[in-house]
Amino acid sequence: MLDRALARAGRPLDELLARAGSAHRGLALFRARSPRLHVVACSPSIIRVPDDLPPATSVTGAWIDRSTPDALPSALATFLAEGQPPVIITFGSMRGLPPAELRAAVDRLLEAGRRVVVQGSIEGGAESPNLMGIEAVDHQALFPRAAVVVHHGGAGTTHAVVAAGVPSVVVPHVGDQPYWADRLHRLRVAPAPVPLAGFSGSRLADAVLATAADQNVRVTARTLAAAIADEDGIGATVALLERAGTAV
Question: What percentage of the chain exceeds 70 in pLDDT?
Answer without folding.
Answer: 85
